[in-house]
């Protein structure tokens, strides 16, 4: 598709109808949809809403969805709204076609922050945006929100006293399995070696702390740690029922 001119409130309905027709195909959803924005000069929130609705519809139908060749003004709107993090955007049409127009929504997203506790809300929003864009069941997000908080705060608390580690969080959705990987360049630390709390102990015997990693291991289907070069890498995977 090749939208032209302005994608504002007045043009949104017509463009939405075109997208719906393309996604419906001849009774069968296409394998991929690429929107070439070379001639698109302007997009407002109404246009963004259409892109989001179309990308979600494509994700539900198993159709790859991507945009390419965003002009500077349109690119700025995408970056300010965060849409460049939830919808695949390629710099050029040739690059999109060369890569086979990979996954539309949230197949893989990354975010990097320094290990300060003040960055936890931003990471949580990153996860929530991913979740919403991928149309995953809201109740299932809580396990990943808890795991993200526990693992990130472990890095914050166990980071080097000489330097602030950088933390990268990646999310990969593969069919119904979601994998969250947290990497940092701090001192080697395997949280999975921490002893599990004795959940049967009495109040006066119960050890303070140690519950975070225990909860992560219980909530996830699998959790693994490895040291990759100079980085800690903790990978957590869980099946998300639809």
What does this structure look like?
The chain has 242 residues and is of the alpha/beta class. It has two domains: 5-98, Transcription Regulator spoIIAA, CATH 3.30.750; 108-239, Heat Shock Protein 90 (2-Layer Sandwich). The chain has eight helices and ten strands. The strands form three sheets. A five-stranded antiparallel β-sheet has the order 6-7-8-10-9, covered by helices on one side. Helix 1 runs parallel beside helix 2 and helix 7 packs antiparallel against helix 8 (211-219). The longest helix has 18 residues, at 141-158. It starts with a strand and ends with a strand.
Helix content: 25-40%
Major beta sheet, strand line-up: 6-7-8-10-9
Number of strands: 10
Number of helices: 8
Return the CATH class of the largest domain.
Answer: Alpha Beta
Quick overview:
This protein is an alpha/beta fold and 242 residues long. It is built from eight helices and ten strands. The chain folds into two domains: 94 residues, Transcription Regulator spoIIAA (2-Layer Sandwich); 132 residues, 2-Layer Sandwich (Heat Shock Protein 90).
